[in-house]
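User: Batch of two.

Assistant: Item 1 of 2:
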Amino acid sequence: MKDRLVVIGNGMAGIRAVEEMLARAPGRFDITVFGAEPHFAYNRIMLSPVLAGEKSFDDIVSHGADWYAEAGVELRRSAPVSGIDPAAREVMTSAGERISYDKLILATGSHPIMLPLPGAELDGVVSFRDAFDVDRMVVAAGRGGRAVVIGGGLLGLEAANGLLARGMKVTVVHLMPGLMERQLDVEAGRMLRRELEGRGIEVVTGAVTEAILGTDRVTGVKLKLGPEIEADLVVMAVGVRPNADLARSAGLVVDRGVVVDDEMRTSDPHIFAVGECVQHRGSCYGLVAPLYDMAAVLARTLVGAGGSYVPAATATRLKVTGIDLFSAGDFAPAEDREDVVLRDPGRGVYRRLVLKDDRLIGAVLYGDTADGAFFFNLIQSGADTAPIRDTLIFGPALCAAA
């Protein structure tokens, strides 16, 4: 008799874990997946091109009905799970069902952070997290008018670009002095700002949002020590937090996220977790690469093949048409590090490499990211760059020639 595997979450991490497990031990488990959304699994990181009108939603569906049928996976759509009973090894649905499991995977993702501002509950205030959010933004953009995006990070800028492409006038309001400060250094941030302003996006940095204005529907945004900005739509893109609500209510160990060991096991030996809901060795992750690495480790754990999750360097790219931007590793200033910088203002190209003990530990590329994979591989491998030090900044072709 097959063991019963239940997966809570039909997102990228949960489905990747199922894929990895099926590849290693097809037929080992009777699998049921619960998804809160009405959709089949889709590529969430491609929502930005959907918002910009460059792709349709169907283009980003990664696993359609045929995949679930062929894989023998039962998918419950629009079926949020309301609770977990670890003692009985059952999950409870909002419809009142109780489904038993032998092994349970939590892949509940994350919640968008909504700032507790006056007016945050008004109609026209949205997050940018799922297909429902994109639908709301597309409808709002169809009416025209002005949009204010609160947050100048990766998602905020992708939202701003998408709404601009849909015909809205857009203002980005960002708390920090520079855009995408977690991924970019000061110079690259300045170049990005100039590019966005050249496209017609207004950028306000160093700005504290004090309130969202309106009676029933949003009409504007009030900045502390700043002006009021008219708005027909406000997008909050200030970050996410792990969705650990179910785990917490079930009595599992939860800190910022669901605490797991190196095998992705929670404090209950029959319950595992993967993806953005997870906290591993004190860290939570939001990029796709570490989530997929977790899924592979979890699959090996479930089929008894062993393995441990080891965090690796991650890379970031901005999904905005016509803007090439790449960053990876650690580029914070320190006395024991050396910067190698190339600037070509005429071409709009900027490169900064950060070296420590002849090892590449960080890279920021703007305007020309073709060599991103080369630099990322050097960061991951920790290879000695001394033999190619003089040509390193120019990429693999000159390094090979040297």
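Item 2 of 2:
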Amino acid sequence: MTLPSPLDALAGGLVVSCQAYPGEPMRNPETMAQVAQSARIGGAVGIRAQGLADIALIRERVDLPLIGLWKAGDADVFITPTLRHAMSVHAAGADIVALDGTRRARPDGLSLAETIRRLKAETGAIVMADAGSLDDALAAIDAGADCVGTTLAGYTPDRPRSPGPDLELIGWMADALEIPVIAEGRIHTPAHAAEAIAAGAFAVVVGTAITHPASVTRWFVDAVHG
């Protein structure tokens, strides 16, 4: 399997997703860039970031492979939902463009295959398909994706939402696919990350447990209160 070099650099490592939810104090490109810099110091092999300003500033500050996306709209498909969004994410500095890789209809009317074909033809971008099931992943491969993430497992009707990572799906994908499978979603502990790699993941993306203080604080508050 021949891999594009930014993707190859992620093999066996931890990618830190540096994102803040709308309305939060940390929803600021400078803050997210600082979080990304700290993740690099800690040994991350890549960064995942949302929004053009965040992507651009992290690209300037951090010399790691950068997975970029743009969350837009209130439809089911909101992770880099259109070709226009994907082109903009690449132009902002992302090495790998992450987009919704499910089989659902996209807001601009293009198929996933047409979106990926045109994106690659015009930019040469590496594409990560955020999937919710094995069928999504297989369709994403046919559409031309370079790697597949389990990002949307449990967030579409195809899979139940497990409390931790969907290890069963990671294993199925790793066995069935000839492209890298990137584990993402509800990886809340170092043990979860190790289990994802053991299940066959090419790399692991962790966001909330590292970069979302409100959620981590809530976990501890809930534990203290029993």
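The chain has one domain: 5-225.
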